[in-house]
Amino acid sequence: MGGDEAAVTPRLPYLNARLQGLGTTIFAAMSAVAEATGSVNLGQGFPDYRGPVEVLEAAVAAIGQGHNQYPPGRGIQSLRDAVAIHQRHWYGLDFDPASEILVTAGATEALAGTILSLCEVGDEVVMFEPYYDAYPALVAMAGATHRVVPLRPPAWGFDPDELRRAITPRTRLIIVNTPNNPTGKVFDRDELELIASLCRDQDLIAVTDEVYEHLVFDGEHRPLAAFDGMRDRTVTISSAGKTFSVTGWKIGWACAIPQLITAVQTAKQFLTFAGGTPFQHAIAAGLALPDDRLRDVRDDLRMRRDLFCEGMADLGFDVLAPASGYFATTDIGSMKEHDAVAFCRQMPERCGVVGIPSQVFYDHPGDARTLVRWAFCKSTPTLEEALRRLATLSPSR
Ligand SMILES: Cc1ncc(COP(=O)(O)O)c(C=O)c1O
From the CA of 110, how far away is ligand 1's center (Å)? Predict the structure, then answer.
């Protein structure tokens, strides 16, 4: 490449802008900073504790039994069967494992395959803001553009008229992430009914990201596909990483009508084609566990949420406690701080903790410039150490 910097710069202006000179996403960059500085990493959302032992042992057993070669492109039969049973058992949704379920490399590949296969150059995709950062990046890779509808704190509600206005004749997809990252919002029945009615009226395809479906503390998870007329116009995406605390396994899936699944698989076969064979076996075993084992993971995480959120409130942080998921948000305005990017950059040196400025999840951060996202999916000693360190920042001490 002869030292030509342009040759190694990603082609897409949107992606370059998002890298913010870091050369990687802020999450990976902050994890590297945490490692280099010995900081407590509350940036990237991955647990530092183990998931259900039955699932871990099933992966070891699958490797021992020789399940180590390429799986079928659509995923192993037993996992597709297990996903079908899971969707029926929890939500009353029927999907044919042969033609309506696709196993993917995490939810991320299901999202990528869906967006790349369904969007043409010039199409528009509607999403709520703050968003999971992969959505606009994948839309940009497809040559499409995105439009955002703000979710406003503290309840993270949206204005139905803003949603209606975001939909144009060019809109191809609407992405709905519930339970939501980074806000923890769980969309309620009325909100989902409104989204469903707009999809039906405007003939839109919905893409749902439900990776936190089993980590709801307050409220109830409702899949959009279960609403009237939505099963046939929704690509329902989830993954095992959060449900079983195995984010590194990257086993996900998409459920939809055969035409949509075939489209997603068309893109997928040129992304990874297939992968994770022993982990697919283990997740098939995990999905067959009694419901209580999944609830145990949720209840354990709820305890961590309460420990962290109450601890932060005691330190003087203005805490937006989440109804679901891995992340809490604080407004650092109450700490006499005005810019979360500067605050998060300085935190490793000031107190040895890493968090993420919420503005990376926004096109238009506005009042979100003082919001910080913290991952509380960490062991009790890790959370207690983080709180001890953060106490040194507290103006009240
Ligand atoms: C909302 C959301 N969607 C998708 C993903 C990625 O899921 P996976 O690791 O299964 O690709 C994450 C991971 O943090 C997430 O928070």
Answer: 10
Per-residue pLDDT, 29? 80
Ligand 1 atom closest to 108 (CA)? 11
Confidence band for 306, pLDDT divided at 50, 70 and 90: very high
Residues 6+ apart with CB under 8 A from 345: none
Cα 396 to averaged position of ligand 1 atoms, centre (Å):
37
Eight-state DSSP code of residue 59: H
From the list 254, 247, 191, the residue with the least C-alpha distance to 215 is 247
Q: Which atom of ligand 1 is nearest to the CA of 177?
A: 1
169 contacts 138 by C-beta, under 8 angstroms: no
**Mean pLDDT over residues 89-115, rounded?**
98
As a whole number of angstroms, the distance between CA 254 and CA 205 comes to 14
CA torsion, points 116, 117, 120, 124, in degrees to nearest 10?
-60
Q: Which amino acid is at 365?
A: P
Residues in the chain: 397
Q: For residue 176, is pLDDT > 70?
A: yes
- Ligand 1 binding pocket (C-beta < 6 A) is 45, 106-108, 132, 177, 181, 209, 211, 239, 241, 247, 250, 252
Tell me: the pLDDT tens digits for 17-56? 776 666 667 777 888 888 889 999 999 899 999 999 999 9
The number of the ligand 1 atom at minimal distance from the alpha carbon of 209 is 3
The atom of ligand 1 lying closest to the CA of 326 is: 16
Residue 2 has pLDDT above 60, yes or no: no
Dihedral sign for Cα 345, 348, 351, 354, please.
Answer: positive
Q: Where are the beta strands (DSSP E) in 217-352?
A: 234-239, 251-255, 318-320, 327-331
Alpha carbon distance 132, 335 (integer Å): 26
108 Cα to the center of ligand 1, angstroms? 6
CB 351 within 8 A of CB 389: yes
Q: What is the pLDDT of residues 204-215, one digit of tens each?
A: 999 999 999 999
Q: Phi and psi (nearest 5°) for 14?
A: -60, -45
